[in-house]
Amino acid sequence: MISAHDPENRNQAPNRLISEKSPYLLQHAYNPVNWYPWGHEAFEAAQKENKPVFLSIGYSACHWCHVMEKESFEDNEVAGLINEVFIPVKVDREERPDIDTVYMKVCQLMTGSGGWPLTVIMTPEKKPFFAGTYLPKESRSGRIGMIDLVPRIKKMWMSQPEDINRLSDEITTALKHEEAGLPGNALDESVLQSAYEELCRRFDEQHGGFGAAPKFPTPHNLVFLLRYWKRKKDPKALLMVEQTLQAMRQGGIYDHVGFGFHRYSTDPIWLVPHFEKMLYDQAMLTMAYVDAYLATKKEEYKQTACEICDYVLRDMSDPEGGFYSAEDADSEGVEGKFYVWSHEEIYNILGPSEAGLIIKVFNIAKEGNFVDQAVNERPGTNILHLDKSLEQTAAAMNMATQNLNDSLNVSLKKLFSSRGKRIHPGKDDKILTDWNGLMIMALARAAQAFSEPLYADAAERAAAFVLNHMRTPGGRLLHRYRDGDASLPAHVDDYAFFISALIELYETVFDIRYLETALELNRFFIRHFWDSGNGGFYFTADDTEEILVRKKEIYDAAVPSGNSVAMLNLLRLGRITGDPDLEEKAVQTGCAFANTVSEYPAAYAQLMVAVDFAAGPPCEVVIAGDSQAEDTKTMLQTLMSQFQPNKVVLLRPAEQQSPDIDRISGFTKSYGSPDGKARAYICRDRNCQLPTSDIAKMLEMLND
Q: What confidence tens digit (pLDDT) does each residue in 158-178 have?
C-alpha cells in the first residue's frame, strides 16, 4: 500500500500530527512546524500563550499544498517564525469539511476567491482576521510571502489588539449574515429553463465543456442537461452533453493507459490535466457516461463508464470493500511524471510496428506535445490524447473500428505494465462515507444499465463496509475510516449520499434491507440536521461542534451539495413509501434556497435534477412476479436499460406470502401476478394504469 506522500524529513522529531490517521496530516508530521491537529488542546494553548492561531487546510492530492510544504513548512526559517508567533493547526479538508466550508467562505468574503492550500489566521476564539490561499516563502508577483507576513501579523497582534478584535468580529458577523437568508417560493419548471439557458451561454462550442481554462468536468451539469433533453426534446442539450463527454474522453484529462479521469484540465482543450485522481470525480463521471449511454445507446459511453469502474475496482479499492479517496498528482516531486511518455520510451517498450500506431493515434511527438512547464518540467514528454474519435481515426486509416481498438488495447496494456514499474503517486487510502456513497451509486447505476453483476457485487461490498465499520452502535454514521479506526461525526453529505446509494442499491438487487436502512438513516438525518424554521439541512448535526456558524450548503461544486441530493432522496422515498410528508420536506428544501438559486440556477445543477424529478411528473413502477423467474428478470432488465430518470422501481416478489415491500410501501399490497406471469404496475402523477405483462406495452406506458 502506498500511502500519500511519505515524509522525507525522518531525522526531524515528529510533531503532534504523528498520532493522526489522515495521510495528509501524517505527511506533515515531520515538519519543523509544531503542528497541532484541530481540537481543544490547540485553542487552549492559544489562549494560555496569547497567540493567534495559524490554520492551514489542504488535502493529500493537492499539488500546491505540497509546494507550500516544501517551500515553507519544511523550511527551518519559516517554521521558526510560525512557531514563535502562532499556534499552528493543520486540517485535512476531506476529514473535516465542516471546518473547511466555514473558513473557505471566510476566505471568499475577505479576498473574493478561495482554494487550497487555505491559510487562515484567527483569534483563540476561532474568529478569523486574515485569509489567503497559497503563500510562497518570499514575497513575489504581488503575493505576500511567509517571511514578510509573519512579522507583520506579530506586530499587529501585539500593538493593535482592538483593531484585530474589531476586524474578526466584523468578519464573523458577515459570515452569520450570509447564513440568515429567508426561504422563497417553490422551485418549478421555469428554473430549469433558466439553468439551461445559462449553460448554453457558457458552453464552449469548439471544445465542449463550460467556461474557459481551467476547465472542470462538472458532470452534474451533464446529468441535468440529459434530463432537460428528455423533458424538452431540445437537440442542443444532448449536443452539449455528447460533445463534452467525447472531448473529455479523447483528451489528456483521461488516463488512456490506466483509465480514470484526472481532476481538471489546465487549458481549454482538455489536453494538460492537473494529474490528481479523486474518487468523487470517478463516481460522478461514471454516472454521466451511464446516463449518456442509456439516452443514446452509444457503446463509447458504456466503454468509458466501464473503464472508470474497472480503474476504481483495481486501484482504489480496500480489500474489505471500501474505496480510497485519491491518488496524488505528483511522483518524485514532479506533477504528472508518472503519466507522461517520451517518444523514445514508446519505441523501446513497443517496438517499431506497434509504436508507430500508438504514436500516430495518440499524437506523440519527439519534442513533446505540450509546453506547460509549470505542470511538468521534463522536455520532450507527451500526454496521450486523441484528436478525433476512434471511428474517425479508423476511417482515416482504412481500418475497421473494432480492429483498431483491439490493436490499441494490446499496446496500451504493454504500456500499462511498463508504467507499473515507475514510482507511483501517493495514494490517500482513507475511506470517506460520502465519497463511498457516490461510488456505490455509480456502480449500482452501471450494474443496472449494463446488467453487470460484478459492479453490483462491488457496490454491495462497499455498502457493507460502511455499515459494518463506519456506524456507531447507536446507528449514527461516521465520516472517516483508516487503519482500523472509524471516527469523526458524519455531516450532511455523508447522510445524503449514502442514503441515495442505498436507494440505488435497492433498485439494483431489490434487497429490502437497503430500503429499510435508507429510511432509518433518513429519519435520523431529519431529526438531527433539519432546519425546522426555514427548511433544508444544516451541514452538521445539532449535537456536534459548531464552528462560528452552523452552515447550510446548496452550491453544487466539484461534489454536489448534500441538500441537492437530499431533496431528490426525499422525493424518491416519498414516492416509494407513499409518505407525503417526505415530499413536502423536499419542497421545503427547495424553498429554503430558492432566493439564492434563482440568481444563477446553473450553479446548482444537481438541485435542478431534483427539481426536474419533482416537476416530472414522476412515476412509480412496481414489478410483481417471482424474483427468480426469467420473465421477471427480463422485465426488470428491460426497465433499467431505459433512460427514464424520473421514476422509482419496486419489486413485489410473488414467492413471498407477505412480501416485505408491503411494510414499506402500503400501496403495493394489491399488486400481484395471479396468472404467474410478471406484471408491471405503472402510476404517473398519482394516476395508475392497467397492469401489463407485455414488455412492449410497459415501455409504451413509460414513454407516454
A: 999 999 999 999 999 998 887
